[in-house]
Amino acid sequence: MMAEDIQHNQKANFNGLTKSAKSGASKKLTIKNFKDRPELTDSYTEDTWIKLRDAVSAIQNSTSIKYNLEELYQAVENLCSYKVSPVLYKQLRQVCEDHIQAQIHQFREYPSSSLDSLSFLKRMNRCWQDHCSQTIMIRSIFLFLDRTYILQNSLLPSIWDTGLELFRTHIVSDGAVQSRTVEGILEQIERERNGETVDRSLLRSLLGMLSDLQVYKDSFEQRFLTETNRLYAAEGQRLMQERDVPEYLHHVSRRLEEENDRVISYLDQSTQKPLIATVEKQLLGEHMNAILQKGLWMLLDENRVCELTLLYELLSKVKGGLMTLLQAWRDYIKSFGGEIVSSPEKDKELVQELLDFKDKMDHVTQRCFQRNDNFINAMKEAFENFINKRPNKPAELIAKYVDSKLRAGNKEATEEELERILDKIMIIFRFIHECGAAFTSKLEGMFKDMELSKDIMIQFKQVCVRRYILLNTQSCVCVCVCVCVLQMVKLQEVCKLFYLGKHSGRKLQWQPTLGHAVLKTEFKEGKKELQVSLFQTLVLLMFNESDEYSVEEIRTATGIEDGELKRTLQSLACGKARVLNKMPRGKDVEDADRFHFNSDFTHKLFRIKINQIQMKETVEEQVSTTERVFQDRQYQIDAALVRIMKMRKTLSHNLLVSELYNQLKFPVKPADLKKRIESLIDRDYMERDKENPNQYHYVA
Description:
It contains 27 helices and nine strands. It is mainly alpha-helical. The strands form three sheets. It has a three-stranded mixed beta sheet with strand order 1-2-6. Strands 3-5-4 form a three-stranded antiparallel beta sheet. Helix 11 packs antiparallel against helix 12 (272-283) and helix 20 (437-466) crosses helix 21. The radius of gyration is 47 Å and the shape is elongated. Mean pLDDT is 82; it is low at 1-36 and 468-484.
């Protein structure tokens, strides 16, 4: 228990005693004038002092006081009234000092065995507690002296402060006693750190004693922090070898909680900052790089959200911790993403893996890294870095992925889910340098056209309702036909009149390959709905008239181009949902094959989407795609050339090409650069030097 606590607990009793002493004195000795006081003689003064000294001695030896406390208080007041306060103060200090000096022997003579350190601390604490109680009791008797003479002399310490000064000088400042006390306290703290249970109230009282005596920092805190530094330096080295990173992080967190709890329980509040800084330095700062090298990639690979959150919180406490984590985080994204992009054998899954990886990293920044802007920007930079290491291919695969999602429609996802997927794809797409503004604007234009088509479809349906035109199928203004059945021709004419009436001067062009329909079909199993393309629709509707057709009969009736027709028949008779049977069986469709309706068709779903067979991209188509990409880039190349020449005025061919490569963020063939330079020369943006054809001049 601290000295202030003792004061507080006994203050009320002693104040009450003082008040009663004063009131009792006023009844017995109401001093109205000088002659009411006892006569001041040497005998009276000596007798009164002996009485007071005996009372102080009784208090110090914990024996009963022979005299009435009110009488003792009045005696002090009388002596002070007779101007003998200096002598009284000096005599009181001497008695207290003699008593405290006598206490030091019990500590000097105490056995020095380490087994007796706890009992030594208990004896020291009991001595301190007794001293505080005795000082408070003595002060209550000499309260008049404390509040008059001592208070009026600023150089004199109060009775309480005098007691602290004497205890510090004769007990705690003794080298051997202080050393043993501090070592005993440190031993108890070390035991507690090792998992043992210790008497926290004892430690709180003793450390409060050192704080009250103003020797806490010099005698205890410095040694305590040194021992703490030594302990955690050794522990950090050992545990980094023995434990994996998640276990180590939880251990560090637990240690920090324990040290904060010690501050609350018994250490002085001023110790908290240097103590926590010491623990963080030895358990985190000294092993920061090792922790990240050993465990960050594993935590990210396994998506250990809890440990990643803890890692961020712990490193944020260490100087330079977050910057080190940021760099390691950036390196991980570059490495993991680079593996996705640079593996041709994974091209089919590349876009989906990129989307999944981006979702995972977004989740980490939001949940674990507190949405720190620096980490978000580092992630963007890392994605931009690795996705552009493989020229052209990511953009090509993203385009194909978007195409497949749009063709699949709502079979694989709802409209809202598809919107979210496209939004995520656009985020990935923006990381690619090789796609210029023109290319991006085309993609954005496509999405705007999709929204416009939805609006037109709504308006078209409203017109049909007003004109009492029954729409038996879910149609779209973009659905169109080749050789169509009568119902579809009528609907096509209505749609044409509606669109041209809304947009005068435009030409409506039908795209048969992009149409789709839902057909209600009846099998032996029951009714089903088939979601099919327009070509599939035309083929299936023929089987309302007959159960069997040849390839030539279907080609003649529908007018579908030969290659497209064979892919359509393949999807209906050779795919997963075989609503037609092909004779003879096989994966390929030949001109001699015949098809008949499969009435035995079964499926667990009510609505079945039958996907069209996709054509494999040919080498010629790949070359064509690359050429179209270059057409989009050429404007950026031209702009960069003009910008460089405008600034430099005159440049050699090699320097111009070198500068151009530094500015462009996508790969360009030297031959293509030469074509763009020639184009600018032809258009009078620049010219060749007349004497040196490898040097160019800017034309203002």
